[in-house]
Amino acid sequence: MVIKELTKANQKGGIMPEKTVSAKLGSGESATVTYNFGDSLEDAVERFGGEVVMSTFLASAVISLQGYIRRLLTAKKSPEEIAASVATWKPGVKMVKTSDPVAALMKKAAKMTPEAIEALIVTLRKRKQELTEVSNERTVAPSKKK
Q: Are residues 56 and 44 both part of a single domain?
């Protein structure tokens, strides 16, 4: 099934058999080459062998998963949250970006003046009060008439 999907993508122009690859040294020296990796999974397996295709896939997938785990760690996710998120992870599929709102706010606050920080604190206190009032309204049961 995967081979058929890749072949369909290739027929629609989704996969190019020849790929331009560049590399550059810190000194500025660079080279660019064109290499034919194949135009489908079947073609890649035929060219390089199933073991090479699988080991290359695994190497890339492990690196992608490590990056995903690092993003979750940066977002201060617990081991349980990380395990649950990884259970739905798929290589090559963009996952929802996770962020820590407190960390993001602290990063912004580091660039703010003391006056701006004080104004932010006032705004946050007002917002907290609003949320508390809404929460209290939801938890107060209506009085029963007898």
A: no
